[in-house]
């Protein structure tokens, strides 16, 4: 039985992940922690509240000081079993921005939410991830301990042939670097770290013209995570498990 925490679960990919995890027994889920900034505005997520596996918690990725309180709330539920999977999904995206229109506040805001937030939340939850890893020494992947950073192909330097998107691209490239560092730093603890590009998905962020439905992306991500092992550690993958270039 594993416990999974998903940030940004009020809509889009985050909400889709929560729904999939609650309805799909392949993960043998004991607890699903779903975070959102404001429960009062997370109507669709709150409708799932009656599920005993689901624990809805408020978290703002800009308020890094609140992360240890969040970790304490998770700890009170998982006890000595720890947290098996952290999915850093919450994020923001600016419009297509050329160099002449870039604003420093947009760059800073993207880094606060897309890069610094996931890093600091991982730090706060690390004792619980280590606990899960120690508790399941003979297991691997989601049955042990995994950090998943939801990134984007727009964070790939190699694949950048269109320019623009300065705030979003740079923040996602940065979280990819953080993923690599986590994979190195936590290898001895048996904790895996991967970056995943969910595809261009029909969400509030992706827009109506995106070719992928949420469920397509979510199904691919979950199928990949079910089979994740040490060979994937520190890698960058798309939602179908294909290796992407940095």
Summarize the structure in words.
By secondary structure, this protein is of the alpha/beta class. Helices cover 38% and strands 15% of the residues. The chain contains six helices and seven strands. The protein has helices at 12-23, 43-46, 67-78, 104-135, 166-185, 214-226; strands at residues 2-6, 29-36, 54-58, 85-88, 146-150, 192-197, 236-238. A seven-stranded parallel β-sheet has the order 3-2-1-4-5-6-7, with helices on both faces. Helix 4 links the parallel strand 4 and strand 5 (146-150). The longest helix is centred in the middle third of the chain and has 32 residues, at 104-135. The two termini are 33 Å apart. The model has no long low-confidence stretch (mean pLDDT 93). This is C-factor. Keywords: NADP, Oxidoreductase. One of its GO terms (molecular function) is carbonyl reductase (NADPH) activity. InterPro entries: Fungal_SecMetab_SDRs, NAD(P)-bd_dom_sf, SDR_fam. Belongs to the short-chain dehydrogenases/reductases (SDR) family.
Query: What is the 3D shape?
Result: globular
Ends distance: 33 Å
List the secondary-structure elements in sequence, H or E.
Answer: EHEHEHEHEHEHE
Instruction: Classify the oligomer.
Output: single chain
The major β-sheet equals: 7 strands, parallel
How many helix segments?
6
Helix-residue proportion = 25-40%
Number of strands: 7
Uncertain runs are none
Radius of gyration over all CA atoms, rounded: 17 Å
Overall pLDDT, averaged? 93
Question: Which percent range describes the beta-strand content?
Answer: 5-15%
Keywords: NADP, Oxidoreductase
GO molecular function: carbonyl reductase (NADPH) activity
InterPro entries: Fungal_SecMetab_SDRs, NAD(P)-bd_dom_sf, SDR_fam
Pfam families: adh_short (PF00106)
């Amino acid at each position: 039985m594993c416990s999974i925490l998903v940030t940004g679960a009020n809509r889009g990919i985050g909400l889709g992940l929560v729904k999939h995890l609650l309805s799909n027994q392949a993960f043998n889920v004991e607890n699903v922690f779903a975070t959102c900034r404001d429960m009062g505005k997370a109507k669709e997520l709150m409708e799932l509240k009656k599920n005993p596996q689901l624990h809805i918690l408020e978290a703002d990725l800009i308020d890094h000081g609140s992360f240890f309180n969040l970790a304490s709330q998770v700890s009170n539920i998982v006890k000595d079993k720890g947290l098996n999977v952290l999915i850093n999904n919450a994020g923001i995206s600016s419009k297509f921005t050329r160099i002449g229109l870039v604003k420093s506040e947009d760059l800073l805001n993207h880094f606060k939410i897309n890069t610094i937030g996931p890093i600091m939340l991982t730090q706060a939850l690390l004792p619980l991830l280590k606990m899960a890893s120690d508790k399941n020494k003979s297991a691997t992947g989601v049955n042990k301990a995994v950090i998943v950073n939801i990134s984007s192909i727009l964070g790939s330097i190699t694949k950048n042939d269109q320019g623009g998107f300065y705030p979003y691209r740079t923040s996602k490239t940065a979280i990819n670097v953080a993923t690599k560092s986590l994979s190195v730093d936590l290898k001895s603890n048996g904790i895996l770290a991967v970056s995943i590009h969910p595809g261009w998905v029909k969400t509030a962020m992706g827009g109506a013209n995106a070719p992928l439905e949420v469920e397509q992306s979510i199904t691919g991500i979950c199928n990949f995570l079910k089979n994740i092992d040490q060979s994937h550690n520190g890698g960058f993958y798309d939602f179908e498990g294909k290796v992407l270039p940095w």
